[in-house]
Design brief:
By secondary structure, the chain is of the alpha+beta class. It has six helices and six strands; from the N terminus they run H-H-H-H-E-H-E-E-H-E-E-E. One of its GO terms (cellular component) is cytoplasm.
Length: 220
């Protein structure tokens, strides 16, 4: 590949410089500014996921043939750069969410109101909506609680109960919240074919298989 072609390729998949600049300063941003930055990061991630989908690969797809040679049916360099950028942005997003949680707590601690009083409705009071998946379902057992909740293989989990991309702790917190909510409905948000969907999943031992969910969940 010629140097010009390489430069054009990298320019097409690089992270927006203005986005990079703002992520480097996120520790000093206000909560409302963080919410704007969050939306921009998620938009950039969606573009990358779409680019990977166009080539028929994901974050973990092999880029070499069984003989160990680079695949010729995909743009290996482009995919490699995109994957690197996705991982960087996911780390930035997790850091942003952690900062947002701290600022939200400080905001409410400084408000002398009762817990059931309505908030003022400005941008700093908005509940954070998570849209980035952190895990995917690799198996669903027929007749299981997950099957009854109409979850499917390859569904990408965005949240289950209060567990999401910023606090799943290598999926350990999914196990904890499932055990704590046995026979109680848990709200689940997930991504399927580019659409965010919701369902209600009730962990239970009241079925013919093993476990409370009857599905296999793997981290992205």
């Amino acid at each position: 590949m010629e140097e010009k072609e390489l430069s054009e390729l990298l320019a097409n998949v690089r992270i927006d410089p203005s986005l990079t600049s703002r992520t480097s300063q996120m520790d000093s941003l206000k909560l409302s500014e963080l919410m704007v930055l969050k939306a921009d990061i998620e938009a950039q991630l969606e573009k990358y996921f779409s680019a990977l989908k166009e080539q028929g690969v994901g974050m973990d797809s092999s880029l070499v043939t069984p003989d160990g040679y680079p695949r010729s049916d995909v743009d290996v360099l482009q995919i490699t750069v995109i994957r690197k950028n996705v991982n960087m942005l996911k780390n930035d997003l997790n850091h942003l969410l952690q900062i947002s949680h701290v600022l939200l707590n400080q905001h409410f601690e400084n408000m002398n109101v009762k817990t059931n009083q309505k908030t003022s409705g400005n941008n700093d009071d908005r509940t954070i909506q998570y849209t980035i998946p952190f895990a995917f379902i690799s198996e669903v057992v027929p007749g299981s609680p997950s099957d009854k909740a109409e979850l499917q293989v390859d569904d990408r989990l965005i949240s289950i109960g209060g567990v999401h991309a910023a606090n799943h702790s290598k999926l350990q917190n999914i196990q904890k919240i499932v055990i704590m909510n046995e026979d109680k409905p848990l709200p689940v948000r997930f991504l399927r074919d580019g659409q965010i969907l919701t369902t209600s999943l009730a962990p239970s031992r009241n079925w013919d298989g093993r476990g409370l969910l009857g599905c296999r969940i793997q981290e992205l």
